[in-house]
Amino acid sequence: MTVRLKDIASDLNLSKMTISRVLRGQTDVSAATKARVLQRMKELNYRPNIAARSLRSGNTFSIGLVIPSLSDPFFTEVARGLVQTVRAAGYGLLISSSEEDPEIERFEIGLQLSRQVDALLVASVQESTEFFDDLGQQHVPMVFIGRKPPSFGAHFVGVRDQDIGYVAAAHLIQTGCHKVAYLRGPRTAAADLRYSGYRAALNDFNIPFRPALVIEACEADRHEYRRGVEAMCRLLTEKVRPDGVMCFSDLLAIGVIDAALNKNLKVPEDIAIVGCGNQPLIQSMKVSLSSVDLAGLEVGQRAAKLVLRILSSEKVASNRSLYVSPRIVVRDSS
Q1: Strand pairing partners for 291?
Q2: Contact residues for 73 (Cβ-Cβ < 8 A; gap 6+)
Q3: Three-class secondary structure of residue 72 per DSSP
Q4: pLDDT in tens, 268-301
Q5: Secondary structure tally for the chain: helices H, strands E
Q6: What is the DSSP letter of 29?
């Protein structure tokens, strides 16, 4: 026998409107009531009739997500946070990858819109706002996550990249490092902001800035691990050798650790090392890597809650930006 919305309402002595609010993820329902409703739905194996709901409301109860890479651990966590949150509100998530290609991103966004998604979340690789300016006529709520085109007014949820650089450098300094090197990533706005955070931490802790301790390490045609190895070998030939190294990514940092060990240096006694991304693989290394966690799960959860508020017609300030704080996860390397 098919379980209907009114059956759940009758069982719990609640109105159908309250049950509907829970399904839509609205925030004007108490946590206790929400828990009761979701538990009863689980017990009765309730499945919303999406087709009927779509006919009544004109919505598809689907949300589109376009990310640069399906293999990037940060965006994997973002997607997990999104799914966990929108599922409880009766929405499905349609995920596609732009493969770090602006043209593919434009195609995937068009495909998502053709599926009549109710909202769209994008981690954009576009270098200009022209494409999104044209999209403004679609009237589909859009939220940028992690990345967004520069100087474009839209909702955004992410982490301040300057804070990422600051947290990593400050941690090394607080552990006793006074000659902190930085292996920069690609020449992007995000990488430049992390570098600014590194410089700000040096300044706040009265640590002299040494240009020779900043290595570009951004050759796109070479694997990140190999770049880390080679950059560390270069640093060890400098007149002033670093006692701490922060890296744009975990893979760079893994290369740095291996290069240091191959030179018979002790980590962290001789040199402390911090990465960025907190990827799962770094915990099983010979020297587990300290890393800045980019809070992808929380970014996804907060982006989902923002989208659900917009879809439920709650009043949301225009072009709202929500920032999640990065945190250092301390392990053996520091």
Answers
A1: 275, 329
A2: 277, 278, 279, 280, 296
A3: coil
A4: 999 999 999 998 877 778 899 999 999 999 999 9
A5: 12, 12
A6: S
Backbone φ, ψ for residue 115 (5° rounding): -85, 0
Strand 244-247 to 272-276 pairing: parallel
**Residue in 334, 327, 210 with CA at minimum distance from that of residue 260:** 334
Nearest to 278 by CA among 223, 216, 215, 333: 333
User: What's the pTM value of the predicted model, to 2 decimals?
Assistant: 0.78
As to burial, measured by CB atoms within 10 angstroms (0-12 exposed, 13-18 middle, 19+ buried), residue 217 is buried
Of the candidates 157, 49, 39, the residue with the CA atom closest to the CA atom of residue 88:
39
Residue labelled with tokens 């050759």: 219
Run of H or E including 168? helix 161-174
What are the structure tokens assigned to 305, written together? 């809650």
Q: What is the pLDDT of residues 115-158, one digit of tens each?
A: 889 999 999 988 888 888 877 666 788 999 988 777 777 899 99
CA distance 317 to 119: 17
**Domains, the chain, ranges and CATH?**
5-47 (no CATH), 59-158+296-323 (3.40.50.2300), 161-293 (3.40.50.2300)
d(CA 139, CA 118): 10
What single-letter DSSP state applies at residue 120?
A: E
The b-or-e profile of 179-191 (16+ CB within 10 A means b, else e) is bbbbbbbeeeebb
- Percentage, residues of the chain above pLDDT 90: 56
- In the prediction, which pLDDT does 59 show? 67
Residue with tokens 């403004």: 136
Token pair for 114: 């053709």
